[in-house]
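hi! just following up on the protien thing from before. the input was this:
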Amino acid sequence: MKAIVTVGLKPGVLDVQGKAVAGALKDLGFGGVQDARVGKRIEIELEGTDRAAAEAQVKEMCEKLLANTVIESYRVEITG
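and the predicted 3d structure came back as:
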C-alpha cells in the first residue's frame, strides 16, 4: 500500500519560494501567471491492507514530523 502526502503552506502564510516561481514564470513570458504556491509531496510505502489504519497512521506521521501544522496543511491519499 502507498500513502501520498501533500504538504503546503496554509492560506495567508507568505510563500517566498512561490513568489519567486511566479516571478520567474512571468519573466519567461508566461504573463497569465497570477500566483504560485510551492509545497512538497511525500510517498510512503506501507505494509498491510487496512486502509483506515494506514490513513490514521500517516496522519499521525504528519502531525509529528512531516508537516509543521502551525503554518502548513496536509492531505493524505492511500493507494494500492
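The two ends are 5 Å apart (CA to CA).
The beta strands are 2-9, 39-45, 72-79.
cheers
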